[in-house]
Specification:
This protein has 6 helices and 7 strands. The chain has 196 residues and is α/β, with parallel strands linked by helices.
Length: 196
């Protein structure tokens, strides 16, 4: 059984997609051991508790320095003996030490077709604003392994999503979530859990 930790910062819609896939049996051989957020008010924590999953908060705001936060964060992660760490809308830079310790065992969902609209500063609505400004006809989402760069790790899965006439960043964001992110993230976990 693959022990998964899901890291979130906000509402947790990607977390909900994983929970739904586990409940439906489309993700097998995996269990969510913990949901950790940097934001004590993240609705994702409530989603976890409603599913009987431990919910924890480790916030940079509670530490005097980034180094102290990084150490506490890694210590917290290590207590759960995780096989896979899933970044599901986690808006905190992962400490380099954690990336090294969990090499090949951290995946991230990014709301574009990497290498487009990715890297430092590209998160949330900013990705969709950039895609619309550029005038692309197709966008999508990417699940990739996390390395020491920003959105630079090996790509696991991608799914394209059409950009439609009249799209706003918010409308496009919702379509990318529904058509790509909520499909790809559970699929990636299932692949890893079952050695595919």
């Amino acid at each position: 059984m693959l022990r998964v930790g899901v890291l979130v910062s906000g509402g947790g819609t990607n977390l909900q997609a994983i929970l739904d896939a586990l409940d439906a049996g489309t993700v097998t051989n995996a269990e969510i051991a913990v949901v950790i957020s940097n934001n004590k008010n993240a609705y994702a924590l409530e989603r976890a508790r409603n599913h009987g999953i431990e919910a924890a908060v480790v916030s940079p705001k509670d530490y005097e320095s980034r180094e102290l936060f990084n150490r506490a964060f890694l210590e917290k992660i290590n207590t759960y003996k995780l096989d896979l760490i899933v970044l599901a809308g986690f808006l905190v830079t992962i400490p380099v030490e954690m990336v090294r310790q969990y090499g090949g065992r951290i995946i991230n969902i990014h709301p574009s077709l990497i290498p487009s609209f990715c890297g430092v500063g590209y998160y949330g609505l900013k990705v969709h604003e950039a895609a619309l400004k550029r005038g692309v006809k197709v966008t999508g989402a990417t699940v990739h392994y996390v390395d020491e760069g920003t959105d630079t790790g090996p790509i696991l899965l991608q799914k394209a999503v059409e950009v439609k006439e009249g799209d706003t960043p918010e409308i496009l964001q919702r379509r990318v979530m529904e058509e790509a992110e909520w499909v790809l993230l559970p699929q990636a976990i299932n692949m890893i859990a079952n050695g595919k």
